Design the sequence.
């Protein structure tokens, strides 16, 4: 979620509409980009309404139709927008049940026919007990924290300085797991990006221009470079969110690189202080000899500096 | 312009196009088979992988003149019909082998070639077979698991299910 009073300022809205034809539609601006929003939002709403997940659909994320749910960033979609949807679903359920006197699942179609549907817009409200003062920069930067640990085993070739990450175990506390396969996918993907960031990925600039602006030169891990990643999902729920979820997107990215560097130190005794831990940096750290500067294009030996 | 004749997913195709036109563009723009994705367009990422006479190739690097008389298999040809998925596609769904989906069509075709070549469930061999296909989302673990699921011949939920 956003830091400090960010979420209060965003004042995001998520909506659920019971349409006149009996369809239940989720309306949010949160974009599906592979992380599983399209799966978990209907899950959360169906559970809150006590209807089958197939009965809930997601409106296309077109701003002509959906409210402003804030940006799809900051590991906030499941936690913040998901929480708004559960609150909206509870209000929808209460509204229908109060009118019909029956269960929501058993009476919403008849309710929709009779009253032409019902739409609930749920706006973000500060989490109880958490506040941040923008004048003094004091208070709770976040109402809850995710915790993560990562254990890495590496091989380091002392002749070439190459490091091979063999295995990674990542344990991430995401508050509450909504969909285990998708949550593991988030942890594994983030962990591999962290391993890449620790070992091979480096944006190189000269005179403000990218030297490696394509996949031929900006190297990311292939399936052969990637370690097997074992994920442990930990659940320490966030009590102020109706579903207990905390963020998952960025969390695994934070711990992988320090674990790789610590494993290299365990193997070689040398601490690498600049990422990535390239062969040049590892050899320089292990031998105590400064990293050789690359030769200018076309040069066969270092030019003497006057 | 020359006339090129080849087969795409069992359908015979006849096209008048410049010989150096990329197979990727022929598939996506001339034949409207947009399942094949363009990632980098320079043969690094494997997103545009299709099978050319059974062998995985980057369709961004193949000029259509080299396809004359050949058989091209794309992701559209994997599923047996509109309501069912290929076992490999079902395994990707089951294991969580797809996230953003850009690498998925190419990943599926590389895996299909591996399985058609009697590839087994050995993890290192699977990783070798998909080493030319980059994925930025999954960490590869679940993709490897999905391919191993099919290679081991075991049964899993959704393998006979309707396509979604």
Sequence:
């Amino acid at each position: 979620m956003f830091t400090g009073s960010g979420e209060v300022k965003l004042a995001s809205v998520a909506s659920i509409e019971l349409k006149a034809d009996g369809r239940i539609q989720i309306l949010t601006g949160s974009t599906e980009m592979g992380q599983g929003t399209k799966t978990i939002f209907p899950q959360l709403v169906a559970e809150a309404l006590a209807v089958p997940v197939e009965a809930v659909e997601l409106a296309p994320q077109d701003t002509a139709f959906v409210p402003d749910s804030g940006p799809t960033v900051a590991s906030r979609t499941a936690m913040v927008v998901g929480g708004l949807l559960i609150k909206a679903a509870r209000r929808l359920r209460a509204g229908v049940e109060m009118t019909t006197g029956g269960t929501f699942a058993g009476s919403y179609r008849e309710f929709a026919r009779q009253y032409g549907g019902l739409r609930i817009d749920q706006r973000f409200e500060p989490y109880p007990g958490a506040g941040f003062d923008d004048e003094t920069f004091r208070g709770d930067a976040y109402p809850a924290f995710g915790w993560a640990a990562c254990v890495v085993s590496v091989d380091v070739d002392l002749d070439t300085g190459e490091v091979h990450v063999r295995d990674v175990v990542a344990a991430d506390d995401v508050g509450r797991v909504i969909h285990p396969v998708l949550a593991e996918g988030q942890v594994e993907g983030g962990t591999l990006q962290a391993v890449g960031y620790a070992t091979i990925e480096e944006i190189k600039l000269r005179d403000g221009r990218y030297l490696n602006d394509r996949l031929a030169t900006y190297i990311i891990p292939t399936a052969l470079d990637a370690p097997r990643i074992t994920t442990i999902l930990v659940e320490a729920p966030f009590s102020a969110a109706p579903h207990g979820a905390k963020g998952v997107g960025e969390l695994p990215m934070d711990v992988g690189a320090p674990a790789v560097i610590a494993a290299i130190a365990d193997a070689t005794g040398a601490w690498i202080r600049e990422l990535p831990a390239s062969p040049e940096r590892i050899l320089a750290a292990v031998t105590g000899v400064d990293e050789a500067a690359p030769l200018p294009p076309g040069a066969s030996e270092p030019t003497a500096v006057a | 312009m020359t006339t090129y004749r080849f087969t795409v997913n069992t359908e015979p195709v006849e096209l008048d196009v410049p010989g150096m036109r990329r197979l990727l563009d022929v598939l996506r723009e001339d034949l409207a088979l947009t399942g094949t994705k363009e990632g980098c367009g320079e043969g690094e990422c494997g997103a545009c992988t299709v099978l050319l006479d059974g062998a995985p190739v980057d369709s961004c690097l193949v000029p259509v003149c080299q396809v004359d008389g050949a058989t091209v298999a794309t992701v559209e040809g994997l599923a047996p019909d509109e309501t069912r998925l290929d076992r490999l596609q079902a395994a990707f769904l089951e294991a969580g082998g797809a996230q953003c989906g850009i690498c998925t069509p190419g990943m599926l075709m590389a895996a299909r070639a591996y399985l058609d070549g009697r590839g087994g469930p050995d993890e290192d061999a699977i990783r070798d077979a998909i080493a030319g296909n980059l994925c930025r989302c999954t960490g590869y673990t679940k993709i490897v698991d999905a391919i191993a699921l099919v290679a081991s011949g075991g049964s899993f939920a959704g393998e006979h299910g309707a396509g979604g």
Q: What stands out?
A: The radius of gyration of chain A is 25 Å. The CA atoms of residues 96 and 287 of chain A lie 73 Å apart. The mean pLDDT of chain A is 94.
